[in-house]
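Before relying on records like the one below, remember that each one covers exactly one chain. Contacts with other chains, cofactors or solvent are not represented anywhere in the record.
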Amino acid sequence: MHRCNRRRLRWLSWPLAAILVPLLAVPSLAGAPHFWPVVRFSTGRSVQVAPGIVYSRYALRTSAGPLSIHHLRIDLGNPSVRLSTSLSHDQLIGDNEPVSSMARRYRAVGGVNADYFDIGQSGMPLNIMVKDGDLLRSSTERVTLAISKERRARIVRYRWNGSIVLAVTRQSYWIAGFNTGIIPDGLTVLSNVRGYGAPTPGPRERQTVVELAPVKASPAILPFTSGPSSVGRAATQYVVKQVWSQQAYYAPFPRGEILLVGRGRAADWLLGNVTVGTAIDVHLDTVPDWHGTATVVGGGPLLVQNGRIVEDPLNPIAGERNRPRPVCAVGISADGRTLLLVAVDGRQPRLSIGLTQPQLAAYMRWLGAYQAMEFDSGGSVTMAVRFPGRRAPVVVNSPSDGHERPVANALLIFSMPVMDHPGG
């Protein structure tokens, strides 16, 4: 890294500049990031959590108030480092779970909250989720963090393109959602990971539930992984086991099975075209294709694209764009090999006032992010770290609710022995 760049970061990274500066390649910016108040004083410290994983904390005094900032720098090129998503209580619908609890359950060395979720209602995350190569939920067109099986990160918008095809007649029907809420007048596909199953239809709702069992296959192309709720990737053909009209079908259902839930016109189509024994190909597809990814988790808005600050037209929290608040974000280096997770405390006048979206975008770009996006922010902002010698992760930031908020999912960081590393 060039000496001039180190000098420009010294206000933030003092007194451990040699360790803290190479978070990402720093662009040529002088002074504090654009849109920021004047920085009057700063101090910082850094701890190597594990090989390829560094935690840093900074305390700043600015002309607008104090800031408390937390970083986790992750080197995806380090063979001992692995990232994954975690789902609250391993189910999409249900009570949410704090980040630190998910990190403890999975024995992670660190983690942050991730996607927006249906708070106070179903608890479901609101965008696509891929965990260890398995699709758990279909996509919206908001931005996501995607990590490939080759261990490179990028920010992607996935367009949902799922469908079912009757194997004999080749008739097809569009899948409106996979493990989402039940879609009115549409076809929804459910696996056990969603939880709950298909509800009873309302008084004037037409509903058809089709129970699908996997087609028997040789072990080489067995369509299901070992997880109890995984949906097949190597094969997609199922056979209709039963058709249920105007009835509920609650989870859990038999291992490996999925449900087609049609409402309205989709219910009529299923009743008219599907019978017991019908072979059906189920395509859980997106554009671009999600199948090459190991990890995908949603968020938004997009902050930095190709090294430039951008304004996301699909901003999930556009009304809070110019309000200082707690924020959580991820930045990616140009080669996709380095991640920087950032959590900024807010709504605490004596500790940290938080950042606006333009300030956060400027900060991520100033740190050198070639791509950056926000995760769920406000009271959800949580960063947990397991320090060397400690048995469990602890929350390192100060959540604005005064306590850790249960959330739908998290992005977790693992440090694994190289000999045991799965390589994906």
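Residues 3-13 form the longest helix (11 residues).
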